[in-house]
C-alpha cells in the first residue's frame, strides 16, 4: 500500500470516528475540553501507530480505547477527578444511530456565533474532522502556537460559558445552519485554492465534501445544505484538472477528460434533491452554475446564457462585488468583451484590492487587443495575490504576453 | 448556570430617539421583566446616567478619585440583571427578546458568572 493511499484511509477513518467520539466523551465526562483533548491525543497516536503498523482491525474501537485512556489520564492530571466523577455518566455509550446526531451537535457548537469566527474552522477541523493542530497550521500557513492558542481559547469558552453541544431548536436552526455551512464552505476553499502537493497528508477539500454530505443527510429538509453538498461535490470533481505540476489551470484551459464524471452526476442529483424542497438560495444557485460549467463540452460550448441568468439570480441573494465580477465574466461570453469590460469598470472602486478583478480585466483587455493595459492589469493582480499557485499562473501570463509582443 | 446581562447603549444615539417610541419601548421592558421573572436570579438595577459616575482608580502612590466612568468607551452600561438558565443558547434566546434592542446602539453583554469556587478550597 502506498503511503498516500494509507493516508487517505487514515483520513477517512479519523473523520468518521473523531467527531462522535468527542461528543460521546463530552457527555460521559461532562467536559468538552477534556474530551476534545483526549481524542486529539488519540488521533496523534493513530497517525504514527497506523502508519507504522498499518490500520488495526477495528479502527473505531482502537481510537476509542486510546481516547478513553487519555481522558482518564487527563482527569487525574487536572486534579479535578472528584468534581468530575460526581458528574460522570458511567453508562456505556450507545453506538451507531446516534453518531450522526452527535457529530452534528458538535459541529453546531464549534460553529456557534459566540465563538470567534477565526476559531470556528480550526476547532471544527480538530474536533469534528479529526485533524491535528500541525496539519491545520500547515493548511492555513499560520504558526502552530498561534493556532493552538486560538483553539484553546475557543474550547475554554465552550466550557465556561456553557455553549451546549446540541442541535439548535427549530426556530433557530436555519440561521445557525448558515454559520455551519459558511465554515464548511471556507474549509473547502482553503483546500481548493492551495496546491495539493505531496507534503499535505490531508485533503481539506475532500474532508469538506464529506462534511457537507453529513450535514445535508442529517438535516434533509434544509435545501441550502443540499445545495452546498452539490456545489462542493461538483467543484471537487474538477480537482484533478485544476493543477498540473503544482500550477493552477483555469477552467477554460482544463483537460475536461480528467473531470470525475460520476461525481458530477452525483452533484446534479444533489441539486435535484435541493430543488425539490423549493427554497432556492445562494449555495443552490452556485451549484447550478457549477453544474452548467461541468457539463459543457468545452469553454466555448458552455451554455453561457444559462450561466448569466443564474448569476443574475445569485446577485439578488448576494449583491457583493465578487458575485457581480463573475456576472460580468459570464456576460462577456454573451454580450462580448467590450460590454463586459464596461460593466466591470463600474466595480473598480469596491474591488480595487481584489486580485481576480485585475486578472479578469486583463483577460478582457487582452481579448480586445489592448495588450499594454492587459499587462498592467496582470501586474496589479500579481501584486495582490498571496496564493503561490495563482502567482505562478499570473507570472506565466505576463511572460507569455511579452513573448507574443516580441513575435 | 448564572449569567450577568449588562445592558448597554450609546448616549449619543439615545438622544435621537423619538420620546413616544421610547415610552412604548419602556413599557415593553416592564412587561419583559414580568415575562422573564422565572429566569431572573436577580433582576438587578437600572443605573443613573454615566455623567453621575465616579471612579476610584489605581495609582502608584495611592488610589485616586476621578469623575466619570472607568473608560471612555462610547457604549455605557445602563443596568444589569442576573439570569439563571440551562446554557448559553437559553441566555441568548432570552436576550434576543430584550425590547431595547429595537433602538440603534443598544447592546447586551452576556457574561457567565463564576459559581464554582471549589478550586480555591483547601
TrEMBL record, chain A:
Gene3D superfamilies from the UniProt entry: 1.10.1740.10
Keywords, comma-separated and alphabetical: Sigma factor, Transcription, Transcription regulation
Pfam families: DUF6596, Sigma70_r4_2
Keyword Transcription regulation applies: yes
DUF6596 domain boundaries: 176-275
InterPro entries tied to this protein: DUF6596 (IPR046531), RNA_pol_sigma70_r4_t2 (IPR013249), RNA_pol_sigma_r2 (IPR013325), RNA_pol_sigma_r3/r4-like (IPR013324)
Transmembrane segments: none
SUPFAM superfamilies per the UniProt record, alphabetical: Sigma2 domain of RNA polymerase sigma factors, Sigma3 and sigma4 domains of RNA polymerase sigma factors
First and last residue of the signal peptide: none
Keyword Transcription: yes
Domain RNA polymerase sigma factor 70 region 4 type per the UniProt entry, residue ranges: 109-158
Family the UniProt entry places it in: Belongs to the sigma-70 factor family. ECF subfamily.
Official protein name in the record: RNA polymerase sigma factor
Protein source organism: Nocardioides baculatus
Automatic annotation (TrEMBL), chain B:
Domain YCII-related intervals: 1-112
Domain of life: Bacteria
InterPro entries linked to this entry: Dimeric_a/b-barrel, YCII
Family matches, as Pfam families: YCII
Stored Gene3D superfamilies: Dimeric alpha+beta barrel
Similarity remark: Belongs to the YciI family.
The protein's name in its UniProt record: YCII-related domain-containing protein
Organism the protein comes from: Nocardioides baculatus
Amino acid at each position: 500500500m502506498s503511503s498516500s493511499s494509507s493516508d487517505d484511509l487514515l483520513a477517512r477513518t479519523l473523520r468518521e470516528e473523531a467527531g462522535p467520539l468527542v461528543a460521546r466523551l463530552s457527555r460521559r465526562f461532562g467536559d468538552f475540553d477534556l474530551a476534545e483533548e483526549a481524542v486529539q491525543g488519540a488521533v496523534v497516536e493513530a497517525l504514527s501507530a497506523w502508519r507504522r503498523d498499518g490500520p488495526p482491525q477495528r479502527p473505531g474501537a482502537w481510537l476509542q480505547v486510546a481516547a478513553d485512556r487519555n481522558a482518564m489520564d487527563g482527569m487525574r492530571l487536572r486534579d479535578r477527578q472528584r468534581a468530575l466523577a460526581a458528574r460522570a455518566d458511567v453508562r456505556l455509550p450507545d453506538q451507531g444511530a446516534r453518531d450522526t446526531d452527535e457529530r452534528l451537535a458538535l459541529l453546531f457548537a464549534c460553529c456557534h456565533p459566540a465563538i470567534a469566527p477565526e476559531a470556528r474552522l480550526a476547532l471544527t477541523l480538530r474536533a469534528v474532522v479529526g485533524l491535528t493542530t500541525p496539519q491545520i497550521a500547515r493548511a492555513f500557513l499560520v504558526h502552530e502556537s498561534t493556532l493552538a492558542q486560538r483553539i484553546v481559547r475557543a474550547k475554554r469558552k465552550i466550557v465556561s460559558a456553557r455553549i451546549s453541544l446540541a442541535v439548535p431548536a427549530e426556530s433557530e436552526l436555519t440561521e445557525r445552519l448558515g454559520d455551519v455551512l459558511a465554515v464548511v464552505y471556507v474549509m473547502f476553499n482553503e483546500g481548493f485554492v492551495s496546491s495539493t502537493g505531496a507534503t499535505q497528508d490531508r485533503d481539506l477539500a475532500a474532508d469538506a465534501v464529506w462534511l457537507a454530505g453529513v450535514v445535508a443527510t442529517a438535516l434533509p429538509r434544509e435545501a441550502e445544505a443540499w445545495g452546498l453538498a452539490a456545489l462542493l461535490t461538483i467543484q471537487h470533481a474538477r480537482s484533478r484538472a485544476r493543477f498540473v505540476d503544482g500550477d493552477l489551470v483555469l477552467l477554460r484551459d482544463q483537460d475536461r477528460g480528467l473531470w470525475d464524471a460520476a461525481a458530477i452526476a452525483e452533484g446534479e442529483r444533489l441539486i435535484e434533491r435541493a430543488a425539490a424542497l423549493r427554497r432556492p438560495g445562494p449555495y443552490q444557485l452556485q451549484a447550478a452554475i457549477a453544474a452548467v460549467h461541468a457539463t459543457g463540452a468545452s469553454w466555448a460550448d458552455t451554455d453561457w446564457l444559462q450561466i448569466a441568468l443564474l448569476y443574475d439570480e445569485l446577485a439578488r441573494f448576494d449583491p457583493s462585488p465578487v458575485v457581480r465580477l463573475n456576472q460580468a465574466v459570464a456576460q462577456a461570453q454573451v454580450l462580448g468583451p467590450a460590454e463586459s469590460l464596461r460593466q466591470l469598470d463600474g466595480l473598480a472602486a469596491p474591488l480595487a484590492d481584489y486580485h481576480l478583478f485585475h486578472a479578469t480585466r486583463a483577460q478582457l483587455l487582452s481579448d480586445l487587443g489592448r495588450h499594454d493595459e492587459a499587462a498592467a492589469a496582470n501586474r496589479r493582480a500579481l501584486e495582490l495575490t498571496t496564493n503561490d499557485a495563482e502567482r505562478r499562473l499570473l507570472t506565466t501570463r505576463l511572460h507569455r504576453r511579452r513573448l507574443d509582443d516580441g513575435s | 448556570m448564572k449569567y450577568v446581562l449588562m445592558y448597554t447603549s450609546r448616549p449619543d444615539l439615545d438622544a435621537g430617539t423619538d420620546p413616544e417610541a421610547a415610552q412604548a419601548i419602556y413599557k415593553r421592558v416592564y412587561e419583559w421583566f414580568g415575562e422573564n421573572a422565572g429566569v431572573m436570579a436577580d433582576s438587578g438595577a437600572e443605573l443613573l446616567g454615566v455623567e453621575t459616575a465616579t471612579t476610584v482608580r489605581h495609582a502608584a502612590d495611592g488610589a485616586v478619585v476621578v469623575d466619570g466612568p472607568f473608560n471612555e468607551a462610547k457604549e455605557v452600561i445602563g443596568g444589569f440583571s442576573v439570569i439563571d438558565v440551562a446554557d448559553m443558547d437559553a441566555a441568548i434566546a432570552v436576550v434576543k427578546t430584550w425590547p431595547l434592542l429595537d433602538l440603534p446602539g443598544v447592546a447586551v453583554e452576556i457574561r457567565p458568572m463564576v459559581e464554582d469556587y471549589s478550586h480555591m478550597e483547601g
